Amino acid sequence: MAGYRLAAIPGDGVGPEVIAGARLVLDAVASRDGFSIDWLDVVAGGAAIDAYGVAIRPDDLDAVEACDAVLLGAVGGPRWDDPDATVRPEQALFALRGGLELFANLRPVTVLPALVPSSPVRPELLEGVDLLIVRELTSGLYFGRPSEQRETPEGRVAVDTLWYTEGEIRRVVRLAMELARGRRGRLTSVDKANVLATSRLWRKVVDETRPEFADVEVNHQLVDSCAMLLVRRPAAFDVLVTENLFGDILSDEAAVLAGSLGMLPSASVGDRRTAHGRFGLYEPIHGSAPDIAGRDLANPCGTILSAAMLLRWSLGLDGPAADVEAAVAAAIDDGYRTGDLVPADGDAAGLRVVGTREMSAAIVDRLGARVGAGT
Ligand code: IPM
Ligand code: MG
Fold first, then answer.
1. 268: helix, coil or strand?
2. Is 345 marked active-site?
3. 204 catalytic, yes or no?
């Protein structure tokens, strides 16, 4: 029997609830298809600050690196939000992303037809939306140094550093071009080249990479107009590639198309391969949502769809990945909705508004497997 080792990092807020749902789904697929998953539980984020005084322990980072892939819920919350704190939950994310060299964050955005009424965007604009945001994840403003506040004779001054090497740009642009080639062959590179030196270098590197991918149609788009076009004609986009902060912002905006931030999965990958596929970190794009944490209200779909990406990218299990995606769509088609998916007009007639656990169970049921069966 094939066996895989996966790290689970529930984190904070709704993280543990959505991770529990995704684990049920992965365990159900494993028992249905006769492979085994050996789970490594890792404490990170605010939970690790409380337990160990750091956002993630170096030994845990090493243990995670030795796994085939990582499933992460969310980190952060008001308890650890002191702006002067030197230890912050988000440091766990940056240690994982940067430390494991996961330089490309893939955020696919599709619209399930049954969720069109859940989006505030007009239905005719949502037709045919199928885009992939490729966000650079290990450089830019998130990692540039200095990043600090200083006391000066003029008062407090703060500085962050926007830094990119051509190598950092090239590797993520190449991956985005490869992905575009496997899709509709269109790549939009998003920058702010009319203002930023890093963006002008970004544009040059994109243009230098183009000859390797002559079959991919490439265009450059300024980030401000891209933000507008994402709601005006979202169906026109195929793959977008952009630097870290632009990708962070544009992906939350694009999530509105899918009906809720709670629907969107993500995969963070680099070049490293394991025996089964590309090593990766999989997490929903929503945060820890402390306001609804621990109340069985969170939407587990983004995490479950992240688990599907894990099956595909890190374990090479394309069939089971597609089954998980189909099971999520089937549960939605059958009327299951977490609170965030109730239609924008508030009319839930004919729908079954459920919590995290029931939504996860409905998805497991639609995989055609009973959890624990056959193991
Ligand atoms: C995301 C999140 C994180 C980010 C936060 C929690 C630091 O917004 O994954 O998009 O900005 O990268
Ligand atoms: Mg974000």
1. strand
2. no
3. no
280, 321 Cβ separation under 8 angstroms: no
> Which residue, 266, 288, 269, is CA-closest to 14?
288
| Residue 305 three-state SS | helix
Sort strands 155-159 and 148-152 into parallel, antiparallel or unpaired: antiparallel
DSSP letter at 153 equals: T
What digits encode the pLDDT tens for the residues 276-322? 999 999 999 999 999 999 999 999 999 999 999 999 999 999 999 99
For 66-216, where are the E strands, in sequence order?
69-74, 104-110, 130-136, 148-152, 155-159, 186-191
Of 81, 248, 288, the residue with max ligand 1 atoms within 8 A of its CB, to mutate for a pocket test, comes to 248
What is the spatial distance between Cα 325 and Cα 115, in angstroms, rounded to a whole number? 15
pLDDT of residue 345: 86
Angle at 160 between CA 188 and CA 106, to 5 degrees: 30
Is residue 336 annotated as part of the catalytic site, yes or no?
no
The pLDDT of residue 370 is above 50? no
Q: Which DSSP string corresponds to 192-258?
A: -TTT-HHHHHHHHHHHHHGGGGTTSEEEEEEHHHHHHHHHHSGGG-SEEEE-HHHHHHHHHHHHGGG
Statement: the pTM of the whole predicted model exceeds 0.70: yes
